[in-house]
Amino acid sequence: MTEHPHRARRVVARGTLSVALVLALSGALFAANAKFADAQETERHPQDIADLAGSQAERVERLAAQVDDLRSEVDALTEDGNADTAAVGTPGPGYVVESGAVPVAGPGLTVELDDAPVDSPLREQLDPDILVVHQQDLQSVMNALWAGGAEAMMLMDQRVISTSAFRCVGNVLRLHGRVYSPPYVVRAIGDPADLRRGLSESPAVAGYVRDAKDVGLGWHVESSDRLELPAYSGATDLDAATVPEGVEILPGLEEADEAAKDAASQSSQSRKSAPPATGPEGPQGDDD
Predict the structure, then answer these.
(1) Long-range Cβ pairs for the range 49-55 (8 Å, 24+)
(2) Where is the region Disordered (predicted)?
């Protein structure tokens, strides 16, 4: 067989090239692994469970310290807000009484209104509608008592407040979900003389008193040295309400609100401008 030296050299060249290629790929792989390992060491948490638990514990401590700082800031802001609210929003005795939040007692007036007697001979001669107490009659009496300086009022057995609304249907009174029949009784606490003056100065009440004399409607007014009215026990929600023009709501409320905002702003600025608190220096290491 004839030898071919050029073919042997080609085989040797191919083997050398393959070995070089394998070595190059191995080196690239080792370099990539080393780079990935370095990144893991600097960016990833330790793979050892004990070290990992320690690093997570330190992270929890840092977050807990941040939570404590935020909670302290919230508490400080809450205290400032409560202080402003206590100074501005505490109602006076007049508001408490008018709201019906507390029971009241004192001198006052009792007014009783009633339908004409059932056996009245006038029932056959007059319109029956004239012989009964109407909603506007009660409203006139109560408005006159308020105008006369009433401090608190009760209709039947319920305290009357600013959101109270009653309605007469026929000869039946509906108030705060309850139904009443005549006679209707209104009690008001205040100076009896002033309350009587308020009744006498009301044209609507004067008209009712005149009809009471003419057709027999019930009308009785009695002064008392002491009346006791319970606190209001119903709901105070409003569906809608309007305030007439020119009527001031809670006098001084706007000024107090502005003062509270200024105080809160000054408090916030003082906290921002205050230097950060520094703790005591930690223990120093021993010199070698």
Answers:
(1) none
(2) 250-288
Structural domains in the chain, sorted by start: 8-81 (no CATH), 96-229 (3.30.70.1880)
Nearest to 232 by CA among 176, 151, 288: 176
Residue 4, token pair as written in the block = 């071919």
Residues with Cβ within 8 Å of 120's Cβ and at least 6 positions away in sequence, in order, are 131, 215, 216
- Predicted confidence (pLDDT) per residue in 6-32, tens digit: 444 444 455 565 656 666 666 666 666
Cα–Cα distance for residue pair 141/95, rounded to 1 Å: 23
pLDDT digits (tens, 9 = 90+) for 152-204: 999 998 898 877 888 887 778 888 878 898 999 999 999 999 999 999 999 99
Instruction: Give the model's confidence band at 232: pLDDT under 50 very low, under 70 low, under 90 confident, else very high.
Output: confident
Alpha-carbon distance of 222 to 185, in angstroms, equals 11
Are the beta carbons of 184 and 173 closer than 8 angstroms? yes
Residue 112 identity (one-letter amino acid): E
If you compute the radius of gyration of the chain from its CA atoms, what whole number of angstroms results? 45
| Burial of residue 111 (number of CB atoms within 10 Å: 0-12, 13-18, 19+) | buried
pTM of the model: 0.53
Q: Which long-range contacts (CB under 8 A, 24 or more apart) does 43-49 make?
A: none
The span from the CA of 126 to the CA of 274, in Å, is: 84
